[in-house]
Amino acid sequence: MQGLSVPNDWDRRGLPAWTYHSPALFELEKQKLFLTHWQVAGHQNDIPAPGDWLGFELLGERAIVMRGQDGVVRAFHNLCRHRGARVVEGVQGHCRGALVCPFHGWVYNTDGTLRGVSQPATFSNLDKAKFGLKPVELDIFHGFLFIRFHPGPQPKVAELLAPYDADFAAYRSEGLLPVDVPDWTTELPVNWKSIRDVDNEGYHVPLAHPALQDLYGRDYRDIYLPGDLHVSVGQFGDRPARLWSVKQYNAVRPEQDWLPPHLRKAWTYYGLFPNTVFAFTPEGAQFYQDIPLSARRTRLTARTYRQPGEDRATRLARYLASRIDRDTSAEDQQLSIWSDESMLSSAFEGFHLSDLEWGLRRHHDALRRLIPVMTLPEPPIEADVAARNAELIGQTESSG
């Protein structure tokens, strides 16, 4: 995997502080970023049987990803065509042959078509063919399910994530199975970008993450790829560990000889702009996302998977890896809170980034290209943010 080299001379400033607490800017991020970019809803093996479904919600939009009776996976707006009620409630479930709206009893087939309505005589010439569930764009990459609520700048997922293709295939991603534990989720009183800022650089690993430093800190590296893609890799097992979880992990984990040599002793993290990361270890995988709720609040979520035919030693190693990851997550959450609260301080004068934080800068640059009002060092009046952004877009288009 050939990466881009860090420039010798680059602008080491990050986004201005106002972009972390502006409600008007958050509305632009909602419309121009999150709803127009691919989001991961789960894995095809989360819904193995006809009638199985996953729910996904993002900034006022809600989707259902369901396997039809014909075995095909489709995505729809979780929105009854009668009065807009949810046709399912929750993050995951199963329906027996059809979805029934709990409000008035409209019935939908698992392919989204409208089967029938309650008291049909009260509707004049209702054309059922026109009232199926509205589709949501869906794409599948090595088993993972991606949805997009509105058309956007990213290409199809296979093209977008082509640099990850060989590794996902090597990890046998398509055959991953969900683990028998609930999805992990928590909420933080921070802007979503503060969480990404922490996760997009490895400069903090040696001091802030003792377990990761003990496991692979000597050989941690970031790989920057075209298309705003970012891979972080840590090779482990090169020296005795000090911490209990790391020591036990190294002692019990079996060699996964079906993996290519460069992945047998590696933890790898594959970023997807703007808010998703896939994390693979030799024992399993997870994806985690930062789901913005408002300009000042973000939900963190994660879903974990294992390889089929997992033996006891591999299961134990996966458990120990999860302990290390749990501690790392708690450390990153605290760093995100501290970083975010600084954006409200009169003493904050902006970032001055290390070469080891170029990933953070690339993420900011991608945001600026989409929402150029973020280039302004001083905040516009809140009511003028959208108009100022449109003006800057027009200037860019005319100069181009």
Describe this structure in words.
GO terms for molecular function: 2 iron, 2 sulfur cluster binding; dioxygenase activity; iron ion binding. It comes from Neotabrizicola shimadae. Keywords: 2Fe-2S, Dioxygenase, Iron, Iron-sulfur, Metal-binding, Oxidoreductase. The chain is α+β, with helices and mostly antiparallel strands and 400 residues long. The chain folds into two domains: 260 residues, Alpha-Beta Complex (Naphthalene 1,2-dioxygenase Alpha Subunit, Chain A, domain 1); 114 residues, 3-layer Sandwich (Rieske Iron-sulfur Protein), CATH 2.102.10. It has eleven helices and 18 strands. The strands form four sheets. Strands 11, 12, 13, 14, 15, 16, 17 and 18 form an eight-stranded antiparallel beta sheet that branches. Strands 4-3-2-5 form a four-stranded antiparallel beta sheet, with no helix packed on it. Strands 1-10-9 form a three-stranded antiparallel beta sheet, with no helix packed on it. Strand 2 and strand 3 form a beta hairpin. The radius of gyration is 23 Å and the shape is globular. The two termini are 32 Å apart.
List the helices and strands and how they pair.
Layout lengths: L22 H12 L4 E5 L8 E7 L2 E7 L5 E5 L14 E3 L3 E3 L6 E3 L4 E3 L20 E5 L2 E5 L8 H4 L4 H6 L6 E2 L5 E5 L3 H8 L5 H4 L1 H7 L3 E6 L3 E7 L8 H9 L8 H4 L1 E7 L3 E6 L2 E11 L2 E10 L5 H31 L15 H13 L14 H15 L1
Antiparallel strand pairs: 1-10, 2-3, 2-5, 3-4, 6-7, 7-8, 9-10, 11-18, 12-18, 13-14, 14-15, 15-16, 16-17, 17-18
Helix pairs in contact: 4-9, 7-9
